[in-house]
Amino acid sequence: MEELRGKVAVITGAAEGIGRAIAAKAGALGMKLVLADLNAANMEATVSDFTKGGIEVVWHQLDVADEAERSRPEDQRCDPATLDPATLMSGAAMRQAV
User: Is the distance from CB of 14 to CB of 32 less than 8 angstroms?
Assistant: First the structure.
C-alpha cells in the first residue's frame, strides 16, 4: 500500500492490545505515527520496539477520558492538516465537534 507511505496516523490506546497492533501495521506500511496512551511504561516499550524497526514515531502520555488532558497545549503538536487516518482505540464520549 504505497499510498500510505509517509502519511501520519494518530492512534490512541497504542501501548498494547489492538491499538498497538494497528500502530505496528501502520508503521510497517511506512506511516509516521503519533501515539497516545495512559500507560507510560508500556508506551515506552512500544515506542522502543517500533523505532528499532525503523518506524518514525512520537508519543504522548494521555488519559483520553480526561477533558483537561485532551486539551493540553503541549499535546497540540500535530497540525491537523498533516493527519491522515486517526484510530481511537480508547476514548471518551465527545459532546462537541473536535
Answer: no
